[in-house]
Amino acid sequence: MTKYFYWVFLLIMLLGCTNDEPISSERGFAEDKISYYNSSEQFNYDRETSSKPNLILEFLSQVIRGIAWFLNTIFGYMMIAALVVLLIWILFRYVNQERISYIENHQTLRIVDESKIDEIDFGELISQALASSNYRLAIRYTFLNTLKGLSLNKLIIVKDGKTNHEYYHELPIEFKAKYRQVLSVFEYVWYGEFDSTSSIYGQIDANAKELQELINKSDA
Prior knowledge:
Four Helix Bundle (Hemerythrin (Met), subunit A)
């Protein structure tokens, strides 16, 4: 009998601990948290963001649009055509000037006939060039006058096709240094196309006179 009551008591206890409601696996947020997030601007991802306009970029954009509009007009086409013509004219002038400069700088600068070199008064030509402040031409005439002096003193033989450096190697050793100084200034200005000034002319003139004095001493 006692065993019977024991089993009844155990069955009652087991029935009392049984929960008929199923355990939910769903999760959720508290209502107050949801209200907080909905009202906070920090978590409002649907709002439109506005940026401050850049005045410089806006101005440049307006300028570009204005230029594009103008170029599409008849006046714009006329301006483009004028610029093209101007560019062609500038290129033509540049190429023509380069051609003239090339011919001028590569033409024969020496007197190839000994009889003619004696007839030319380079002193007068130098004076005329200096009077017009054409120092570049005066430097050229000074160099040619130096060749004339060397030729008259039988130190070189002027011939067509000979170079200035060939005359250098033709000279006796005592005249080479002074001739080299005259030649360096001449080639610096004439072939290098550097600006010539009165001071540069004074340099070649002094070198040429020193060379002539050296020639005169050798004849004495």
